Amino acid sequence: MYQLENEVRYYETDMQKIVHHSNYLRWFELVRTKYLEAIGISILEIENSGVYYVLKEAHLDYVKPVKYGESVTLKCKLVKYNGIRLVHQYEISVNGEIRCTGETTLVNVNTETMLPINFKKANPKFYEIIRSTIEE
What is the CATH number of domain 2-131? Predict the structure, then answer.
């Protein structure tokens, strides 16, 4: 499972200094993007190959609030990929205590038509790199 550390910024919180729920999805995207970079692929490379990753579904389970001043550990792993749909699972924790878990489904689409595209055919190199990182 890929992970990175992230400091909670003041603007991410509400008046009670609790992280606003919308930021968890931003953190999912941050760790997912860094995960791709860690395996050798950048979002720009994917887009330059004619493919966008489009969010189809997101599920979050808020366990306990994260507050301003805390440092979060963001974890991400790819659990399913068929060349079109990617399913990632996430875990957000503070000092080992899970605060939020979640899952997203993304779809590869053609940048011009916005129709689903199979990465296995469109870019076999990226497909193999991504597929090789699946964790069950």
Answer: 3.10.129.10
